[in-house]
Amino acid sequence: MKIVIGCDHAAYDAKTEIVKYLKSNGHDIIDEGTYGLESVDYPDFAASASLKVQAGEADRGVLICGTGIGMSIAANRFKGIRAALCFNEELAKLSRLHNNANILCMGARTQSIDSMKNILSVWLTTAWEGDRHALRLNKIELNSRGQDAE
Fold first, then answer.
1. Averaged over 76-80, what is the pLDDT?
2. Considering the entire predicted model, what is its pTM?
3. Which of 4, 33, 98, 103 could bond to 83 as cystine, CB 3.0-4.6 Å?
């Protein structure tokens, strides 16, 4: 699977570990940064990763910031992006089964690396159920303003 990943400075170390984990599991990675500990603005990285998923250049995305909240808010501004903030395996599973989440958001200050790896493993291996959930996702798309973030 081709996965785009992005983070801010608070999650740089976590992202580095997650990239290693994903590569060791055979995934192709597009690393959108950040590439160091210098303070940066998380919306920039949420945008670049979201655009890759939106354009079909990546199958799914992973965004990590201090809490995951900012990344999920920023990513969900993009049409067609369904970013889910998951802090346990059950949420990861349900975000895929019911919501067909295409971006996983996590928090480096609120989760351990091992927890993130477990969540990611469940998220990547859970398929969307479709069916009754498709109607709900269509309603979300219809109710969106139809505007891409600028």
1. 93
2. 0.91
3. 103
